[in-house]
Amino acid sequence: MPPVGAAPLPPSPPPPPPRRSPVRLVAVLAGVLVLALAAVGLAVVRPGPVAGWLGGDDSPTAAAQPPEPPPPAVLGGADGNAPQPTPEGVRAALEPLVGAAALGDRVNVSVADVTTGEALYGRGQDSPTVPASVTKLATGVAVLAARGPAYRIPTRAVAGAAPGEVVLVGGGDPTLAVDKNGFYPGAARLDDLAAQVRKALGGTAPTKVTVDSSLFSGPVYEPGWDDDIPTGGFGAAITALMTDGARRDPAEARRTEEAMNHAAERVPQPDLTAGRQFAKLLGLTGAAAEVKRGTAPAASGATATGTPAPGAELGKVQSLPMVRLVDIMISDSDNVIAEAMARQVALAKGKPGSFAGGAAATDQVLGELGLPADEISLADGSGLSRTNRISPSLLTDLITLAGNGSHPDLAAIFGGLPVGGWSGTLDERYQASVTKAGAGVVRAKTGTLSGVNAIAGLVTTADGRLLTFAILTDRTPDSLDETRQALDRISSALAGCGCR
Known about the structure:
Elements: H1 29-39, H2 50-54, H3 87-98, E1 107-113, E2 119-123, H4 135-147, E3 154-159, E4 165-169, H5 190-201, E5 208-212, H6 229-232, H7 250-255, H8 270-281, E6 291-293, E7 313-318, H9 322-331, H10 335-348, H11 355-368, E8 376-377, E9 389-390, H12 392-401, E10 442-449, E11 452-460, E12 466-473, H13 480-496
Parallel strand pairs: 4-5, 5-6
Antiparallel strand pairs: 1-2, 1-12, 3-4, 3-7, 8-9, 10-11, 11-12
Helix pairs in contact: 3-13, 4-9, 4-10, 4-11, 9-10, 10-11
């Protein structure tokens, strides 16, 4: 990375013409959002904790607590007849703000009209920039396109080669829980799988557990991650078998989630940890509870005695639907889920389930969607790697494409986007007087690494026009609060003006 600096900004270029044929909407995006979110059972109102909006057997019932007052309007439907901002108007509103010292000396921006796809403002808009967690928008669109919103990730148990051996086969579900006390409400559970195994084995007692996590390959940590990522609580070893996103103590992680900003201690070998938990559920103790890695045998049919033959499936559980995994990934900026999603893209495209495979497959899918694949270069799916590069204009094109009606499944990307001053990573932002115009009308994904700050999403203007924006900075000074407020002032300026 170039050193942090505060060199004077170069003269601003004139507003650019559209970079390519504009992507036209067949309907106003707001309508698509309402339809898409209704289809998956989500509403555009204030999201509560993950347990509240994701559901689960232990969610409190309406009768168990007093009803909340009706929420104020959030992201009301855009007016398709609202006047469109002009490039000159947007330039006048933003130029005084993009040069803020808190943003550093490299500020790349793209703003476009969602209804027409017309570019309204650009400053380094085609320049690949370090995106941090804004990368998750690309990962989310790619996995929804490759797998579909309804796809569920299986975790299987099969008979091993030795009598009573059970092989636990990871399918890449990062939310898999041990029991009802898991971190992700509604997740698939190992205790349910263990019950299926005991029934399938009949009178045969389990003798040992082997774990097969071979679906994912390559390094478990991306080489471009900062040294503190594996131990800092925001990343983990990425394996095809894990429970609770590799959290060591999911109950403690739930209690401290808000205070720790979603960070939690992770186990170093998630697949073996999951195997030991499964062995315990099967009643194995002592030496029999020791777990090793192996490969599930190929299925060969039933034996003459009727006992399950090696490779025979003994049970299967499935993850939450893909749309809900993407919601959690974006709303909570869950890096472990993001890496698992990137590998699902790779597997869907016949590539290795690795960091490199996920990056290559994401690039391929975005290209197939007609996006400029030469403006994105990824090393991971979460944005933790400093070697990732995405241009702001690719992000605004991607957001527009997700709502243009030609790929309805992609509209699910909007369900988990945080709302300014309201939810997720934007909950405590847009509170100052200079940014309050964006509260409730900005919906966006944020990204933060040391020296890197980004935001990309949607905003409704004072006239009711829906715009998409992306602001990426990767040479910011060490002033996080000031930098975030400087970013929020830009989107708030769009929210507070007609920009005509």
